[in-house]
Amino acid sequence: MKKYGYFDDLRKEYIITHPDTPLPWINYLGTDSYFSLISNTGGGYSFYKDARYRRLTRYRYNNTPFDSNGKYIYIRENKTGKFWSTTWQPTRHTMEMYQCQHGLGYTTIQSQAEKIHSKVTYFVPLNENLEIWKIKITNHHTHTVDISLFSFVEFCLWDAQGDATNFQRNFNIGEVEIDSATSTIYHKTEYRERRNHFAFFSCSEPLKGYDTQREKFIGSYHSMESPVVVENGNSLKSHAHGWAPIGSHHIEVTLEPEQTKEIIFILGYSENKKSEKFSPPDSQILNKDKVNQKITYYKDPKNVEDAFIALKRYWDQLLSKFTIKTPDVHTNRMVNIWNQYQCMVTFNLSRSASFFESGIGRGMGFRDSNQDILGFVHLIPEKARQRILDLASTQMPSGGAYHQYQPLTKRGNHELGSNFNDDPLWLILSTVAYLKETGDFDILKEDIPFENQKNSEKSLLTHLELSLKYTLDRLGPHGLPLIGRADWNDCLNLNCFSEEPNQSFQTTANKEGKIAESLFIAGQFVYAAKQMNELFIYLKMVDKANHYSGAIQKMEEAIVQHGWDGEWFLRAYDDRGHKVGSHENNEGQIYIESQGMCLMAEVGKKMKLATKTLASVHRHLATPHGIMLHHPPYTRYHLELGEISSYPPGYKENGSIFCHTNPWIMIAEAMNGNPEQAYNYYLRINPSAREHLSDLHRCEPYIYAQTIAGYDAPTFGEAKNSWLTGTAAWNFVAISQYILGIHPTFNGLAIEPKVPQTWLEYKVSRLFRGVIYSIEVKRVEEGENPSCEVDGIQVNSSTIPLPDVSKKEVKVLIKIP
Ligand code: BGC
Ligand code: NOJ
Prior knowledge:
Helix 8 (366-376) runs antiparallel to helix 9 and helix 16 packs parallel to helix 19. Strand 30 (622-623) and strand 31 (626-627) form a beta hairpin. The chain is an alpha+beta fold. The chain binds beta-D-glucopyranose and 1-deoxynojirimycin. Beta-D-glucopyranose binds next to loops.
């Protein structure tokens, strides 16, 4: 099978050598407020904070050829009139060389045509709301060449939803300003009225010309492949009034043989105070004072270089908090680099903006963001802290949660509402993970409102208790938790009964919801409540601990009594009280989620249910491409099950390998003493280990995808929906905490390796509460006993207590059988 590139682990890059990858292989620029998505052929879009409400540039999903619209630069050799684009798309010309380096927070695309080499580096400097495109062009002819450069971005009219639909308005509102003196194009649609923000696109060179009206630049009935302006080599100095504002600079460059020229483009977002919007104040002219300072700063190549170095240093430092050296290259590069990187991206963007998520429909998911914290918290605990507080502030007094909130307003999203009954429990998992990582118990005392309402504040600890109460207040006929609209599986809609194609499975509930119960939430409750109990015991709140022990025990009993199918856990009871996920069903006999959750919660430990359950998972759900969500998939629509049965067999929630759930089984295998199987499952979905299958897998080989088509799909093994998935966080948890065995506890860092026998040794360096733990794990030699030494001194526990405050480094040597 064909490979499209390779990993460069030293540089922390994936290098793409063929531009025609099976799907666009993308990267994310920006770590804080300004984000830019960029593919290996320059496609993508940018936004400030909120991919729906503050979209800077326009992208066309679902277009042909795909990956349409981006951050393009055309080069035209003036003598011959030949032209091409530095990123291959949109011209898709024949190239003498091509290479795309996706690195951490930057992408560099090199190409060469007609002996003219270009290298464009795209990145977002730290703490800035702008992106830099730095281009270096070199003439490899033996004669001098005259070239014209045309940059191109198409502006989005801010609200990406309206932008894509409301053309009767959109075609009339576009406004720009052009300042030739600073080579800057300002996009200021709606600035005259309620907006106080605008976009800018500037360039370090004097302009030969510019264009700001798309139709003029491209030409009517032309395409991005051959815009008339580029064809003719002459910009038209078009000024957009309405229609489709773009930014295009025209620059002329003369290059001697082997001469290189560097040019900087700056695309960004800026705001002015309401009182300072215009200059002069009584005019309608954009006040550019503040933004022009930024622009001037980044036109200086030295400052750009410094910002790039700072970005690299930032990532090196972040990733140095957790590094490993194991015998397996796939594990090393995913854990050291890409999995942590993806955890940052999912933390920042939840499920909002990718090449599969349009950035319009979904804000920050309550369930999703809480889980993202699990894989992110060690990187920047302070940000995780803020996120926990933001999420908790949207919680309702009942303990229920808005399913999503909008990042710009941080308010719960009313359209989607609440009643996904698993949601509140995830807040416990994220908070406990944060506490274990940081020891910052003060967070529990923070006063946090409900539904962002002033004067409704209660402590975070109270919020967490309400999360438990929410489940306990909603138990069904078997004493198991009611499912509500859905639990983790958004498509298991047991109260929906939709016969109307225009209804949303997510928001329609045609039944009262007093019968359908979820074994997933049951397991999740036990899992979360046990963590709360551990916390109460740590805080010496014995009464609380006792109280919840009772609730846990009752729930476990209900699960074992009503939720055990003989060889695995049921998935649910539907609204008629019928079993879902039972051997009695013809389809959907066994589901992964309830097995994973119940086993992580150690339900049925005394009865040793884990071994039997895991054998069933292996027998019925495991494939070479990962573990399927359920099997057999549904072949027809089931009114009583909802969206799950709307997907063709083997896709998405209908029996695909929904990668998010696989780590739960890895964890369960590791906990149940079967590291070989845990690791084997880990490798099945590890993207690097699947790199050689790129033609089948199709998504990026450096990033987890949400789903891989299941056994029953015609495209078994094909991944979709890369980047924004809980798979990132959970796989990081599974490999780092359960397989490599390094997990934070309230009392210190625990080290409990569960690695395959073939691994004779491995090393981990882990920053934990300000202390670097240099950990070496080795197999015992003949005649030796397993042992654990901390700074040369034998200890008896696998949890290493924090050292004396003066000590910043600890060496741990562990010998395992
Ligand atoms: C998808 C789910 C997703 C949900 C969110 C469904 O169509 O299949 O994976 O969670 O939409 O709205
Ligand atoms: C994707 C959603 O973002 C997540 O919340 C959900 O758990 C899975 N799909 C499964 O439906």
